[in-house]
């Protein structure tokens, strides 16, 4: 595994998108599971106050820097990370890589209908992949049937878009469902065509979070984590 920097106690790996994909291919080949967390400032801050989430993050096989805030923090701590590896970029790269290998891919998450739509669209785009899916609003009573559905499908790749931190904790607690598991947030909404990504130039300028905030002002409450993150990173530096 690549080098890592501890940001507020969460180990974040200096991994590129290509390296993350290579690690996933290796996990499928060897059968040694790879649980991936894409860590943004919000989840790193939350982990400080939530021991369950902290355990899920510190025990993850790969923690990628998700967002410019995390890259900023690493630079501040004099341990720069090479690039941002977001849930959606990793998802697209894994679908691409898995296609030639005929992977079975399970989409878990989103409102009822979203994962099904995402699977249908991606099946048309990647005919070499096999998909199964379930929505993300299941209760504890539904879990046994859901696990049975996933187990009998035997996916190489399980993408869970249940929102953070639920997806990270859920995948931590259900580690054996696929060779590669990734918490992907709102990615399934994008794959289903329900939400749009920021234009490429905005992504490149590191402004995707601002774009999402402008389109979904309800996210503003979550952004309170940012100043807290900045303050804590500066304190860690001291
Ligand atoms: N979600 C879910 N189950 C829940 C709560 C949320 O499947 O119990 C889904 C929700 O429909 C959306 C995603 O999780 O598709 C949440 O995305 P969020 O905006 O939190 O993701 P991020 O900001 O991490 O991309």
Shape: globular
Strand percentage, roughly?
15-25%
Q: What average pLDDT do the residues reach?
A: 94
The computed structural class is alpha/beta
Low-confidence stretches: none
Main sheet attributes: strand count, strand direction, barrel closure: 6 strands, parallel
Task: Give structural notes.
This protein is of the alpha/beta class and 238 residues long. The chain has one domain. It has helices at residues 17-30, 41-49, 51-58, 68-76, 87-99, 114-125, 143-153, 166-173, 187-191, 200-204, 208-215, 225-237; strands at residues 4-7, 10-13, 34-39, 62-65, 104-109, 130-134, 157-161, 180-183. The strands form two sheets. Strands 4-3-8-7-5-6 form a six-stranded parallel sheet, sandwiched between helices. A two-stranded antiparallel sheet has the order 1-2. α2 (41-49) packs across α3 (51-58) and α3 (51-58) packs across α8 (166-173). The longest helix is centred in the first third of the chain and has 14 residues, at 17-30. The chain is globular, with a radius of gyration of 17 Å. The mean pLDDT is 94. It binds uridine-5'-diphosphate. The site of uridine-5'-diphosphate (UDP) has 14 residues, from α9.
Task: Give a nutshell description of this structure.
With 238 residues, the chain is an alpha/beta fold.
Kindly list the characteristics that best describe this protein.
globular; two-stranded antiparallel ribbon; 238 residues
Topology:
Blueprint: E1 4-7, E2 10-13, H1 17-30, E3 34-39, H2 41-49, H3 51-58, E4 62-65, H4 68-76, H5 87-99, E5 104-109, H6 114-125, E6 130-134, H7 143-153, E7 157-161, H8 166-173, E8 180-183, H9 187-191, H10 200-204, H11 208-215, H12 225-237
Parallel strand pairs: 3-4, 3-8, 5-6, 5-7, 7-8
Antiparallel strand pairs: 1-2
Helix pairs in contact: 1-5, 2-3, 2-12, 3-8
Bound molecules: uridine-5'-diphosphate.
